[in-house]
Design brief:
By secondary structure, this protein is an alpha/beta fold. The chain is 41% helix and 13% strand. Strands 3-2-1-4-6-7-8 form a seven-stranded parallel sheet, with helices on both faces. Strands 11-10-9-12-13-14 form a six-stranded parallel sheet, sandwiched between helices. Strands 5-15 form a two-stranded antiparallel sheet. The longest helix has 32 residues. It is elongated. The protein starts with a strand and ends with a helix.
Length: 454
């Protein structure tokens, strides 16, 4: 399983467990700006059989041929998925040609023909949560995988429409569900503890300082107006850490500047979302996937309308859910009730129905993995269909337009095998560079923008 952020790590590792129960899962972190820290991985709480960082070129070098892995889960941003697919396709073609040349004494390799079937692992990809933006772009970048998982019946229909509309094969789209739903069903307020309201914050929604400060003020105000309640602001990362999205204005910084500070019954918390939901009586968010986790348990869930219902916020996804509400309504005691028909369409399925949601994916993966050879990977994007787009996407991950590893990336991949002092020095340099980048994003860039507004 290859992942490039903490949330995609969670989705990828749990998806691997769902689609191949009992299999060995090797966890690989794609090195980049959002590579999760050990603390973030520990907070996710998903165990794998092995764990290490890697580069795209190094990953392709070992994963292209089925000699290493039977199934590869690509839990990455769309561009990274496309790059790995093209890289694996090129490596598999080359390996197939070398085997053919060895078997025939050199004649087969000279033909230059692409083999119809090759020995390669089954590839699986999908989305970590609600798909509310860049639907066509993200889907077409994932095209070419054997299985493109949809987290609901609603998404499966949308995914097929995009592929068929572009003239691309849609057979890889497979309906499933978010792999991390679960936990004990909500039984109502517990008399042994305060009524608990959890605001699930997001790294990039909303993006502006004023909007983020507003949401924090309202959470604090709710706590002040309801002294018998406990209000928890659930954060995904600590300052300096990155998640799937860049967080330029961490709520921790905003809380330090909040007039009057946070009241005693309002505090910032971290930890597993599932553990936080165990003590939640009302989940409040703008559009976090945590809303689906909460709805799955039957917890009253509010999707805020304070900043509008807008595509940029992602809360438009919850139209028809019965969950849209404002802080004013929540302050007045409103507890939203979700529409069961809407939740069913979104893959929020209680009880045994949820466990059956992965049957189709398990069957498809098992059927493909049982074959000795598979059709060559054929993504929708090629140097012919997207000559002005694809080369740039692949180059960001160290690959040429044909999927070959670029010279610089090949050198870096070769260095992966080194050990001892040199490896330790490289690791230290990477950590320093990553820290400098995050400092620039969270501290320097906002200051420059404010200066530009003077």
């Amino acid at each position: 399983m290859l992942a490039d952020s903490d949330t995609r790590w969670k989705w990828g590792a749990l998806t691997a467990r769902r689609i191949a129960p009992g299999a060995r899962v090797d966890g690989l972190l794609l090195r980049g700006r959002a590579t999760p820290t050990p603390r973030q991985l520990a907070e996710v709480g998903v165990e794998v059989d092995s764990l290490r960082e890697t580069t795209g070129a190094a990953f392709v070098g070992e994963a292209a041929d089925r000699g290493t892995y039977d199934v590869v889960v690509l839990a990455c941003v769309g561009g990274a998925v496309q790059a790995m697919l093209h890289g694996m396709a090129h490596a598999a073609r080359r390996a197939s040609a070398e085997r053919a040349e060895a078997a025939s004494g050199g004649g087969a390799a000279a033909s230059g023909e692409t083999p119809a079937e090759v020995r390669r692992p089954v590839t699986v990809t999908g989305y970590v949560g609600v798909v509310y933006e860049k639907l066509a772009d993200g889907l077409l970048l994932r095209h070419g995988a054997d299985v493109v998982l949809a987290n609901s019946r609603h998404d499966a229909g949308r995914f097929r429409d995009v592929y068929e509309g572009a003239g691309a094969d849609a057979s890889a789209v497979t309906e499933g569900a978010l792999p991390f739903l679960g936990g004990a069903p909500y039984q109502g307020p517990d008399s042994g503890r305060p009524f608990t309201v959890v605001f699930a914050a997001q790294p990039s929604v909303p993006a502006g300082r004023d909007d983020r400060a507003y949401l924090l003020r309202r959470a604090a105000a709710h706590a002040r107006s309801h002294p018998g309640r406990e209000v928890l602001v659930k954060l995904r990362s600590r300052p300096g850490e990155h998640t799937t999205h860049i967080e330029e204005l961490p709520y921790q910084r905003l809380a330090e500047r909040l007039s009057g500070g946070l009241p005693s019954n309002c505090r910032l918390v971290y930890g597993h979302m599932s553990e936080v939901l165990d003590r939640t009586d009302l989940l409040v968010t703008v559009s976090s996937t945590a809303a689906l986790e909460s709805l799955h348990r039957g917890i009253p869930t509010a999707v805020l309308t304070d900043l509008g219902v807008r595509e940029a916020l992602g809360n438009h996804h919850f139209l028809g859910s019965g969950c849209l509400a404002s802080w004013d309504e929540l302050d007045a005691g409103h507890l939203p009730e979700a529409d069961s028909r809407w939740t069913a369409r979104q893959g929020v399925l209680a009880g045994g129905a949820y466990e059956r949601a992965f049957d189709a994916a398990r069957e498809r993966v098992a059927r493909l993995a049982g074959r000795d050879r598979l059709p060559a990977v054929t993504p929708y994007y090629t140097p012919v269909t997207a000559p002005g787009y694809l080369p740039g996407v692949l180059a960001r991950y160290g690959f040429g337009a044909d999927g070959s590893v670029l010279p610089g990336a090949a050198k870096a991949a070769a260095a992966e095998a080194s050990t001892g002092v040199r490896a330790a020095v490289r690791g230290a340099v990477r950590d320093v560079a990553r820290g400098a980048y995050r400092h620039g994003v969270q501290r320097v860039a906002p200051v420059i923008r404010r200066m530009g507004e003077l």
